[in-house]
Amino acid sequence: MRRILLTLSFIASAGSASAQTETAIFAGGCFWCVESDFQDLDGVIEATSGLTGGSKANPSYRSYGDHREAVRIEFDPSIVTYEELVDGFFRSIDPTDDGGQFCDRGFTYTTAIYTTSDEQLRIADRIKSKFDNSGVLPAPIVTEIAAASTFYDVSDYHQDYYKSDDVILTRFGPLTKAKAYKKYRNACGRDATTQKLWGDAAFVAAGL
């Protein structure tokens, strides 16, 4: 009987461990793009677009204040580690650009990693130093690393934008959000610039 109880206890604890999640918060320019880069990675449970890093209470897409566009990523660390996410994040952006990202300009679109623990801070600093010292990049990394503050989800209109079948009116006529997003991302040069900067090490969304 004792052996059975111990076995059941082990199974219960193993199940509970696998259900634990962690949070990563990245600002990498347009939050639609960051969300699409990470949402479908193995181990990522959910990626949510929002605003963070500033002092304005209850910002909105029309009234950012001093916040950045960012994405909150809930992930299973037994499948994908925080270190792997940070590594991929740096390789999905231009971390040397202090004026925005790609065609999106202004502070709102500048890059940052918002850490939720001392361990995340150590990992992010270490990876930033690794790339800074690698000689791969043409200029120093300017991506800020800071402690996470309140994260404000933006409206449902912006969530999962990159794969939505909702039809919107664009300058090309009526298009689904997914098709409009691909046109925007291509015109903005996000992937072309990232691949030029990082070469074969560039990290871009699957299927683009």
Q: Would you kindly provide a written description of the structure presented here, covering whatever features stand out?
A:
- α3 runs parallel beside α4 (118-132).
- The chain is built from six helices and ten strands.
- The protein has a six-stranded mixed sheet with strand order 7-6-1-3-2-8, with helices on one face. Strands 4-5 form a two-stranded antiparallel sheet.
- 34% of the residues lie in helices and 23% in strands.
- The chain has helices at residues 2-18, 31-39, 82-90, 118-132, 177-188, 190-198; strands at 22-28, 44-52, 68-75, 100-101, 104-105, 111-115, 144-147, 151-153, 167-170, 173-176.
- By secondary structure, it is α+β, with helices and mostly antiparallel strands.
- Overall number of strands: 10
Helix/sheet category: alpha+beta
Terminal residue distance: 56 Å
Globally, the shape reads globular
> What is the rounded Rg?
19 Å
Tally of individual helices: 6
- The amount of helix comes to 25-40%
How does the major sheet shape up?
6 strands, mixed
Strand order of the largest sheet: 7-6-1-3-2-8
Low-confidence runs: 1-18
Q: What is the element string, with H for helices and E for strands?
A: HEHEEHEEEHEEEEHH
**Rounded average pLDDT:** 90
- Strand proportion: 15-25%
